[in-house]
Structure formats: C-alpha cells, structure tokens
Description:
Layout: E1 15-19, E2 23-27, H1 29-37, E3 46-49, E4 55-57, H2 70-80, H3 85-90, H4 93-101, H5 103-106, H6 108-118
Antiparallel strand pairs: 1-2, 1-3, 3-4
Helix pairs in contact: 2-6
Amino acid sequence: MSQFGNPGMNIAAQWIVSIPGQGDRQLDYNAICQWVKAKQIKADTLVREVSTGAMYPAKQIPGVFSDKEYLVALLLSLFLGVWGVDRFYLGHIGIGIGKLLTFGGCGIWAIIDVILIAVRNVTDTSGRPLA
C-alpha cells in the first residue's frame, strides 16, 4: 500500500472515490476538499490514485484532513476539557485560555465541547476536519 508521504506525491493528482449508491467518481484535489467539507468523504474512505492505482484512506491526502486525531481530541475533551486542553490541542489557543480561566465555563462549556467533538463538528485552526 502506498503512503502519501512519498516525495513524488503531488496534490495535482486525480483520485477515484467509490461511495455506495453513487458509483466511482474521479476527483481532483479541490473536489476532494469540497466533498470532505460536505461530509461526503470521511477520513477512512478509500481513494485510489489514478496515476499509480494505489489505494489508501482519504486522510492520507496532504492538507485535506487535519493532522489532529478525532479520538485524541475526544478523550482530551472528556478528561481535561474543563482546563481547555482539547482546544489547545486543536490549536484554538484563545478558546483554550477562556476555558482554562473559567474552569470550562463552570463545566457547561466543557460539556458543549465534548458534544461538538463527538459529533465531529469541530475543526482545527486551518478549518480542516479531524482525521
């Protein structure tokens, strides 16, 4: 299985995405990003690079998904969210400081963040969804 960390990999490549009920679609980098934002492609959706035929999860395409992990963010939010550690991890420093100084908004803000992360409604500072 090919990894996207290879020096020869470029984001100008074309990928084929198989989504049940929609068949195979050939997409470029911008289309992949749009489909990810529309939640049509998840991090573990398999994509096939047209030029090499290699298949891998969509989260390995550079710049499409965050380098921050969903499960790590969720666990940090559950156990350390009242101190803003989850937001510091995601790069939201200002929100993290706010949670730290208010003890997670007396716990309410911390609970809201757990829910937001659990339903995958939180992004990193670049606006990319968590992998």
